[in-house]
Amino acid sequence: MALCNLVTGGAGFLGSHLVDRLMEAGEEVICLDNYFTGRKQNIAQWIGHSRFELIRHDVTEPIRLEVDRIWHLACPASPVHYQFNPIKTAKTSFLGTYNMLGLARRVGARLLLASTSEVYGDPEVHPQPESYHGSVSTTGIRSCYDEGKRIAETLCFDYRRMHDTEVRVARIFNTYGPRMLADDGRVVSNFIVQALQGRPLTLYGDGHQSRSFCYVDDLIEGVIRLMDADATGPVNLGNPAECSIRVLAELVRDLIQADLPLTSQPSPEDDPLQRQPAIDLARQTLAWEPKVSLAEGLGPTIDYFRAALDS
Fold first, then answer.
1. What is the pLDDT of residue 96?
2. How many other β-carbons are positioned within 10 Å of the β-carbon of residue 292?
3. What is the dihedral of CA 176, 179, 180, 182, to 10 degrees?
4. Which of 184, 192, 249, 243 is nearest to 213 (CA)?
5. pLDDT tens-digit series, residues 33-79
6. Scanning 53, 64, 121, 164, which has its CA 20 to 30 A from the CA of 295?
7. Domains of the chain with bracketed CATH
8. pLDDT tens digits, residue range 212-269?
9. What dihedral angle (degrees, nearest 10) is formed by the CA atoms of 216, 219, 225, 229?
10. What are 253-265's pLDDT values in tens digits?
11. Across the strands, what pairs with 33?
12. Runs of H (alpha helix) within 164-215
């Protein structure tokens, strides 16, 4: 018998890829989205399907549904979007998670929280294991998201301790792939769009800050394995292959238009210098690690943006 899955943020970048996997596996899916960063075209192929339901709803408001599993992905994840209305971002992480945990408790569903590597802040430990408690500014411009996800994790574990609610917590590191938004301000989409438009690629700072980029298919596989596992988490999900922003820019440029210049702008406030997941726990408990290299994953991502810009 198919499980009924609620995916909050299901029309977004990660959510829509998860919806695809669940539908292809024969599950029932309820997609919940308020379309702040989600797009209906991301899940258009499933509209009208007998196992798929689409509801326009904001998770800061309660909702009553009968479901078996809750995949809680609803929250803007790029600085451009989560800083647009930082109070709403904090409300989404706190009230949205509170409402979904309340639903999970009422119907006995298992809930997976899409947390983030941003809970580590500008880390003083490198790479970052799950045991590291982070170096986060509570007053900076990123704190609406960083601290929002930290309180979301707190709620999950308090519901687990107080009400025996089944929870899974995934700390997701930088993820890229088709269906990213062209204007989301994330470095992969920024570089690809600039290169496709023949513009200089903009580095913020000297470009020596590093990130670890995980292709979306790998990330979704990890999320599914965590939901199915006995491990509560938190579990880091990301690609441990560290890459400087300058190297990423040069790689994107070489794949699209090799003669484009690189330009520099000042670094944004509170921008972390390093970010790399320690994924020993995911390897041990989920038998998971990324398979797609950055060079391999950029190809279909570039193809997606080329088609999106052409249309």
1. 98
2. 19
3. 140
4. 243
5. 999 999 999 999 999 999 999 999 999 999 999 999 999 999 988 77
6. 121
7. 2-173+213-235 (3.40.50.720), 179-209+239-271+291-308 (3.90.25.10)
8. 999 999 999 999 999 999 999 999 999 999 999 999 999 999 999 989 999 988 877 6
9. -150
10. 999 998 999 998 8
11. 56
12. 187-196
The angle at the Cα of 295, spanning 290 to 297, to the nearest 5 degrees, equals 55
How crowded is residue 160: how many other Cβ atoms within 10 Å of its Cβ?
16
| Rounded CA separation 165/106 (Å) | 9
Distance, CA of 55 to CA of 253 (rounded, Å): 40
Q: Is 159 a catalytic residue?
A: no
Distance CA 242, CA 257 (A): 24
pTM summary value: 0.96
User: Please, what is the angle between helix 13-24 and helix 216-228, to 10°?
Assistant: 60
Catalytic residue chosen out of the listed positions 82, 98, 120, 145: 145
Structural contact between residues 294 and 248, judged by C-beta atoms closer than 8 angstroms: yes
Q: Are 18 and 220 in contact (CB under 8 A)?
A: yes
**Residue-level pLDDT at 198:** 95
